[in-house]
Write a structure and sequence with these properties.
Number of helices: 3
Helix content: over 70%
Structural class: mainly alpha
Largest sheet: none
Number of strands: 0
Radius of gyration: 21 Å
Number of domains: 1
Shape: elongated
Low-confidence stretches: none
Length: 78
């Protein structure tokens, strides 16, 4: 199935340049970009829903506990 999308002129020009420099079609580049964007957005929304569910179930830590854990991470990286 094909769908026509309209994009801003500046994005269209950038897509055209990238298409020429990579020797890939504008359609394949746009599809890849949309796929990556959707994957990240879907993951983000799911993570938010899981966080809300955990908070509603009382699975939370205090600010003090969170800061203490983050400080441990910083020490490990040093």
């Amino acid at each position: 199935m094909k769908t026509t999308l309209t994009i801003r002129d500046d994005l269209s020009k950038r897509l055209e340049r990238l298409s020429k420099s990579t020797k890939r079609t504008k359609s394949s580049l746009a599809s890849e970009a949309i796929e990556e964007f959707l994957t990240v957005q879907e993951w983000h929304i799911q993570a938010i829903k899981e966080g809300i569910a955990a908070a509603n179930a009382g699975k939370i830590v205090s600010h003090k506990e969170a800061i203490a854990e983050l400080k441990k991470w910083g020490r490990r990286a040093s």
